[in-house]
Amino acid sequence: MATDVPTFSYPHRTSYSAYRVPTPPRIIVPPPALNQDHLPDITLNTLDSAFTTSVDQKNLITQNVLQEWTYERRREAQLILPYLFLGPMTSAKDETWLRKEGITCVLGVRQKGAFESKLMNGALRKAAEMGIEHYTVDLGGHQDLIQAFPSTSAHVQNHVKHMLESTGQMGKVLVFCESGNERSAGVVAAYLMEAHEGVDYIKAMQFTQAQRFCVNFDDGVKRLLQGYWDILCARRQVAAQSTDSQAVNGSANTAVQSTPKRSLQRDEDEDIDGMGGDDVERFGGRTFVPFVDVEEPL
């Protein structure tokens, strides 16, 4: 008698999937397509008209060509936009570099209550001594990043615009953390999504890494950027619907106001019996009577 063929053979498929914690699928960030100059082909269209006239959006990736990247450059800050730099904490302490690049604001991203926060105080003191505006974001963990994205993006945008209005030149902001490769890179990617049209979380990470090749977007930061992109899309959709509804209501009000009203002369022309011109046109020429009083017999 033939023996039965075993259904499973060790190790069968459930031997490793039954003991693994369920995790969401990984977010893969492919390398960006290159143009004829061997530069990442990523176009940025700013949403603020003040930045359109002041920033050349066509050839932003010119100073940090990927083929020329060396390991030592991770200790320096790189230009992401003409008014935005990303780098490690050491760059925020480099007085010579700060003066050379004309940095007007430093934004530090640090871990709340960690030894790193004490180390960053030196960079903040250096900025205060040089008269540079300084701003910090204290995070309890990666999950706090998504709550900080709106405030950090608004701070960068408002500072650059304020400097442009007051001095005629755009301010320059340095965003940094201890390494310049993790949380500060997430802040920069979130700003790219919020300040530019059509830049999703994938393009934002591609553009940031094209400028600073050593940045490290781990799975947690990638999912936070994906979630923040969904929030931005929903917010923009609601704003667009609100604008459309206001336009529809405005056109409806205009149509109502353009409808001619009954003139005072027409009201005064009504006869004593209450038959105006409209009533004459409607009931004139009728021979029947709508009702007749009938006397009941006694």
From TrEMBL:
A biological-process GO annotation: negative regulation of SCF-dependent proteasomal ubiquitin-dependent catabolic process
Organism name: Saxophila tyrrhenica
Positions of the UniProt region annotated as Disordered: 243-284
Domain of life (superkingdom): Eukaryota
Compositionally biased residues, Acidic residues: 267-278
Species classification: Eukaryota, Fungi, Dikarya, Ascomycota, Pezizomycotina
Entries under PROSITE patterns matching the protein: TYR_PHOSPHATASE_2 (PS50056)
Family indicated by similarity: Belongs to the protein-tyrosine phosphatase family. Non-receptor class subfamily.
Record InterPro entries: Dual-sp_phosphatase_cat-dom, Prot-tyrosine_phosphatase-like, STYX-Interacting_Phosphatase, Tyr_Pase_dom, TYR_PHOSPHATASE_DUAL_dom
Biased composition (Polar residues): 243-262
Domain Tyrosine specific protein phosphatases intervals: 154-212
Gene3D superfamilies named among the record's database cross-references: Protein tyrosine phosphatase superfamily
This protein's GO CC annotations: cytoplasm; nucleoplasm
UniProt GO molecular function: catalytic activity, acting on a protein; F-box domain binding
Protein name: Tyrosine specific protein phosphatases domain-containing protein
SMART domains: DSPc (SM00195)
